[in-house]
Design brief:
The chain has three helices and nine strands, in the order αββββββαββαβ. By secondary structure, it is of the alpha+beta class. The protein has two domains: 3-63 and 126-131, no CATH class; 65-115, no CATH class.
């Protein structure tokens, strides 16, 4: 697996339990990941029949870091018991610091980013993900 495939695979695996929506390249409709095959870089979807596609045949829909609202930053700060410091000018480069955070709190932040489909790996600028449409995750965000 290439480093890009590995990064995309790890990211998709972490987000799958949260109802990650993806575009299958060369298909019209948005799909939600149902299972992941960890033996090969494939993910599985169900429409009428189960079918598998390779990891590079999908583009996950993610929210850019810059889409975080002040309310969400406050929520993240409360969950992690940390002061969240964002460099608003450099948000697209995923610059987020948890001031004085423990490893556990950093893990909580990553879980929160995954559950809220935030692109903390910078997949969108790399062309490995699409910007989520407004309201796409409204019913699945925590």
């Amino acid at each position: 697996m290439t480093p890009e495939e590995k990064l995309l695979f790890y990211d998709v695996c972490a987000r799958a339990p949260h109802g990650l929506k993806v575009k299958i390249i060369d298909h019209e409709d948005v799909q939600t990941i149902l299972t992941i095959n960890t033996n090969k870089p494939r993910v599985c979807f169900s429409t009428e029949n189960w079918h598998a596609v390779y990891i590079f045949d999908i583009l996950p829909y993610l929210r850019p870091m810059s889409s975080l609202t002040d309310e969400e930053i406050g929520e993240l700060s409360e969950i992690t018991h940390s002061n969240i410091a964002f460099n608003r000018e450099d948000m697209e480069n995923s610059m987020c610091l948890l001031d004085g955070a423990s490893i556990k709190n950093n893990a909580l932040a990553i879980d929160w980013f995954n559950a809220n489909h935030i692109d903390y790996h910078g997949l969108i600028p790399k062309g490995l993900a699409l910007v989520a449409l407004e309201g796409m995750y409204k019913n699945t965000e925590q």
